Amino acid sequence: MRTVIVYESLFGNTHQVAEAIEEGIREADPAADVTCVRVGDAGDAHVEDADLLVLGGPTHVRGMSRGVTRRMGVKSEQAQQKAPEPDAVTPAGDATSRRHHLEPGAEGPGVREWLQGLPKAIGGKAAAFDTRGDSRMAGGAAHGIAKNLRHHGYQLVAEPEGFIIEDMEGPLRDGERERAKRWAAELVEARSRPS
């Protein structure tokens, strides 16, 4: 079966989850044909023959990103790059950088815009994920992604899933990459079930 993972990532956290999902699918099904592609590089040809589309993005302002929220993130990072780099001192006395770097193509387009051009796929199978903070107030993008996938005719094979980041820009919480791999293995099993 052919699986396509399409992701949006600003600071690399969602990219890491997408790669972990790819690894989890390959481990669960060594014969799997899996493609993992940034949303800005994903065209119709990537998804038209997919048996499973896995779509994910970061949570911005309690939901899917928008052009304005991505621009805010880019401007914030650019301002930090101009300022002297803050260092944190660990208990062992080692200096470690707190700075996160923008992913290539972080300015857009995002998952929201990509979904607008997604062709209808009656009977196609899909799953949705996001990265988010660990707070009820943080919201999540995965439910909005899932709703849009259903609107485009996809059948969801799993409940939308959120993966936790520690701060606004990350890093991923310890254990989230492994949890993403386990979720991916569940997707492999679920995509094989009859509709």
Instruction: Give the overall form.
Output: globular
CATH level 3 topology: Rossmann fold
Which blocks of ≥5 consecutive residues have pLDDT under 50?
Answer: 86-99
CATH architecture: 3-Layer(aba) Sandwich
What does it look like?
The protein is of the alpha/beta class and 195 residues long. The chain has a single domain (2-76, 101-191), classed as Flavodoxin domain (Rossmann fold). 35% of the residues lie in helices and 22% in strands. It contains 6 helices and 9 strands, in the order βαβαββαββαβαββα. It has helices at 13-28, 44-47, 67-82, 111-116, 142-151, 176-191, and strands at residues 2-7, 33-38, 52-60, 63-64, 87-89, 95-97, 125-132, 155-156, 161-164. The strands form 2 sheets. Strands 1, 2, 3, 4, 7, 8 and 9 form a 7-stranded mixed beta sheet that branches. A two-stranded antiparallel ribbon has the order 5-6. Strand 1, helix 1 (13-28) and strand 2 form a beta-alpha-beta unit. The longest helix has 16 residues, at 13-28. It is globular, with a radius of gyration of 17 Å.
Question: What's the SSE blueprint?
Answer:
Layout: E1 2-7, H1 13-28, E2 33-38, H2 44-47, E3 52-60, E4 63-64, H3 67-82, E5 87-89, E6 95-97, H4 111-116, E7 125-132, H5 142-151, E8 155-156, E9 161-164, H6 176-191
Parallel strand pairs: 1-2, 1-3, 3-7, 7-8, 7-9
Antiparallel strand pairs: 3-4, 5-6
Helix pairs in contact: 1-6
Essential attributes:
7-stranded mixed β-sheet; 195 residues; 6 helices; globular; two-stranded antiparallel ribbon; alpha/beta; Rossmann fold
